[in-house]
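Hello Y.,

Per our agreement to keep a running log of every chain we model this quarter, I'm adding this entry. I've kept the format consistent with earlier entries: sequence first, then predicted structure.
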Amino acid sequence: MKTMIVTLAAATALTAGAAAAQPYGYGRHDNRWTDIDRRQEQLAFRIDQGVRSGQLTRREAYRLKTEFNRVARLEARYRVNGLSGWERADLDRRMDILSNDVRLSRRDDERRYGYNDYPRY
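Predicted structure for the entry above:
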């Protein structure tokens, strides 16, 4: 009985240690690119949300969507022959810059006025 408890405790400790040692973002299906895909979805959602709320002007939204599509095409080109560490770092850097641009554009107080949302003078 004691050996079974000790064995189960050791197995639990090893499993917990292996899970803790696993780097952030690595999953069972894929490497950390599942997180990059989710990050792209979140960026696209933030751009759409900014358009719907009026925080982004048409020009800002067009510029951000164009840059987003450019990064997505670059990612597709990189994935053709597999991703190297440099390519992953490059995509991460570009996504960081785009994310910062979205944040700044949504908070710069340039407003798009909708159907019944005219500026009040």
